[in-house]
Amino acid sequence: MNKKLKTWLEILIVSTRLGLTSFGGPIAHLGYFHEEYIRRRKWMDEKGYADLVALCQFLPGPASSQVGIGIGIMRGGIVGGIISFLGFTLPSVIALIIFASLLHTFNIEDAGWINGLKIVAVVVVAHAVLGMAQKLTPDLQRKTIALFALIVTLLWQTAYTQIGVILLAGVIGFLVYRQQTKQEEQSISHFPISRRIGYISLTLFFGLLLLLPILRNLTSIEWVALFDSFYRSGSLVFGGGHVVLPLLEQEFVPAGWLSEQEFLAGYGAAQAVPGPLFTFAAYIGAVINGWQGGLFATFAIFLPAFLLLLGTLPFWDALRSNPKIKGALIGVNASVVGILIAALYNPIWTSSIHSAIDFALAAILFSMLVYWKLPPWIIVVTGAIGGLLIAYI
């Protein structure tokens, strides 16, 4: 088999498995990615992964999806990035399109197996945080930066707080480590994207952002209006899927595209499926225009994330290898550890661990993952079964 085809097939298989089993929101997804791509398959080194996570925290859109796309690009070029995106995203898109027609008769938001999967997310994130902390905060200065990021993001929980913390940590890292960066290990990751592609992608991103509202006002085509609403929502959101939900509600409920009850039913469904929360757009699109609307909405809301990543990766690759920038990245990577610990506590821990028996299940799952080194899918299945059993106790 052609080497490229073999690589693309491998990316499709791995990303699809992640798309079927990655519950728990964007921070949990980063944990799953870290376990599968970095620990097990070593497709990137720790520093390269942390750099990519830091970049995607800066960009608007679904950070975990952008990280998955970036890893796919690194492994298999632009086609690899597209395949990685499709594998991770399509399972939840298909599920939510089906939910759009079926979920109204079921109430599974508080089902036991859903609570079990939330506990799985706690375990996966805790494992990822421990691994990243060992690599990225080895000295007192970096531990202090991580502690600062943890405290600030816990006390002021907004998307802009995260961006401010990352920027400030970059400044601190530049000042503290600018004389020591030569001793730091060089990241071995390289993203095969030319600057020409970067310029084209950024031009498309800003061009569509400016032109779509104009086209919407000049025409009465429903598809143009839908594309504008989803594209704008995906372009202007920092902080991931939970932040996009109120934007989507403002875009579609008052305009009469769907009712408040339908919106809330879809929100419950989105919590119940794996993959990125941005796929909630597939549910809205399917309510409005069937499965075609669901696929169209998915394309429209994720397109800005893809264009932004392709547009920034070529320049990011050059910047992060610049000795003047490496000190800043050391600080940024340390702050990412603190932000992940804050997210591990809230919302992941606070929404999942409610009793001693929940904690006991988490301890069992953590031991299975870390000490017995069982595959993540076994942890997911065990967590779901454990959640069901707890519901009957």
Describe the structure.
The structure is a single chain. The protein has one domain (1-103, 113-388). The N and C termini lie far apart (52 Å). The protein is mainly α and 393 residues long. The chain is globular and about 60 Å long. The model has no long low-confidence stretch (mean pLDDT 85). It has helices at residues 3-21, 26-40, 46-58, 63-102, 112-136, 140-155, 159-177, 195-218, 222-235, 241-252, 260-272, 280-320, 323-349, 356-370, 376-392.
Topology, element by element:
Layout (H helix, E strand, L loop, with lengths): L2 H19 L4 H15 L5 H13 L4 H40 L9 H25 L3 H16 L3 H19 L17 H24 L3 H14 L5 H12 L7 H13 L7 H41 L2 H27 L6 H15 L5 H17 L1
Question: Radius of gyration, rounded?
Answer: 21 Å
Mean pLDDT: 85
Distance between the termini: 52 Å
- Helix fraction? over 70%
Strand content: under 5%
Q: Total number of helical segments?
A: 15
Query: In terms of structural class, how would the helical and strand content be classed?
Result: mainly alpha
Subcellular location: Cell membrane
Membrane topology: Multi-pass membrane protein
Organism: Virgibacillus natechei
Protein name: Chromate transporter
What is shown here, in short?
The protein is mainly alpha-helical. It is 79% helix and 0% strand.
Key terms for this structure?
15 helices, mainly alpha, 0% strand, globular, single chain, 393 residues
